[in-house]
C-alpha cells in the first residue's frame, strides 16, 4: 500500500539528466564526496604507496592536498614526496607544536623545497631547517632565498669535496690505518667527521665515493 504522506520517487539510473520529478542517480554520485576508503585505494593503486602511508595522508587533509598538488604532473617520486610530508614536515610541525591545519607553508614553497631536495641541492637536515624557517615567514618567502641567505647550499663540486676528504684523511691517521687493515666499519666514522667538519653541507653520496676511492690508493 503506498504511503500517502510520501511523494513517489522516480529515478534516472543511466544519464545525468534530471527534472523536478526525476532524480539522476549518476548525478547524485558525482555530488557525493569521495569516501576515505576510496581515497586510500586510489593512492595505493595510482601512486604505489604503502597502505599505512595512504591511511596517514587521508587522515590529514592538508597533507593530502600537498601530496596531490606535488604529484599531479607525474614529475616527482610519490613515495619520496609522501616521506617528506609525513616524516619531515610533520616532525617540524610537531616540534613547534603547530597543528597541520594551521600550517602556513604554501604550495609554491613546498613545491620549490621538494624539488631542491629531490634534485640533491639540499639534504634532509637543511630541508627541515628551511621548513622551520618557513613557519616563521610572514609572506610567500622563497626557500631558495632562505638557503642563500643562511649559506645552507650543498657543496657538489668534486674538487672542493676532495679537498675536505683529504683534510679528514690527513687528520685521522689512526682511523685510516684501521680501515686499510680491514676494519671497514670505521669508514662511517670518517664520513661522520667529514659531515661535522662541513656542517652537513656536502653531497654525502659524492663524498662517500671520493673518500673510498682515496682510501684505496
TrEMBL record:
Pfam (any one): GatB_Yqey
Molecular function as annotated in GO: ATP binding; glutaminyl-tRNA synthase (glutamine-hydrolyzing) activity
Keywords in alphabetical order: ATP-binding, Ligase, Nucleotide-binding, Protein biosynthesis
Gene Ontology cellular component terms for the protein in this record: glutamyl-tRNA(Gln) amidotransferase complex; mitochondrion
Biological-process GO terms, alphabetical: glutaminyl-tRNAGln biosynthesis via transamidation; mitochondrial translation
PANTHER family from the UniProt entry: GLUTAMYL-TRNA GLN AMIDOTRANSFERASE SUBUNIT B MITOCHONDRIAL AND PROKARYOTIC PET112-RELATED (PTHR11659), GLUTAMYL-TRNA(GLN) AMIDOTRANSFERASE SUBUNIT B, MITOCHONDRIAL (PTHR11659:SF0)
Identification of the protein by name: Asn/Gln amidotransferase domain-containing protein
Amino acid at each position: 500500500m503506498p504511503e500517502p504522506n510520501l511523494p513517489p520517487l522516480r529515478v534516472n539510473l543511466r544519464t545525468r539528466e534530471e527534472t523536478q520529478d526525476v532524480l539522476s542517480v549518476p548525478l547524485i554520485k558525482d555530488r557525493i564526496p569521495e569516501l576515505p576508503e576510496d581515497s586510500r585505494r586510489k593512492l595505493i593503486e595510482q601512486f604505489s604507496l604503502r597502505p599505512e602511508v595512504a591511511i596517514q595522508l587521508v587522515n590529514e587533509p592538508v597533507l593530502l592536498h600537498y601530496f596531490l598538488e606535488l604529484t599531479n604532473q607525474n614529475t616527482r617520486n610519490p613515495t619520496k614526496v609522501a616521506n617528506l610530508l609525513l616524516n619531515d614536515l610533520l616532525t617540524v610541525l610537531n616540534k613547534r607544536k603547530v597543528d597541520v591545519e594551521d600550517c602556513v607553508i604554501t604550495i609554491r614553497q613546498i613545491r620549490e623545497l621538494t624539488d631542491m631536495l629531490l634534485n640533491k641541492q639540499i639534504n634532509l637536515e637543511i630541508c627541515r631547517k628551511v621548513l622551520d624557517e618557513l613557519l616563521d615567514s610572514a609572506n610567500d618567502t622563497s626557500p631558495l632565498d632562505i638557503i642563500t641567505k643562511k649559506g645552507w647550499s650543498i657543496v657538489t663540486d668534486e674538487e672542493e669535496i676532495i679537498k675536505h676528504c683529504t683534510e679528514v684523511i690527513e687528520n685521522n691517521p689512526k682511523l685510516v690505518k684501521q680501515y686499510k687493515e680491514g676494519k671497514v666499519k670505521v669508514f662511517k666514522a670518517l664520513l661522520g667527521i667529514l659531515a661535522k667538519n662541513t656542517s652537513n653541507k656536502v653531497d654525502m653520496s659524492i663524498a662517500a665515493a671520493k673518500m673510498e676511492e682515496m682510501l684505496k690508493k
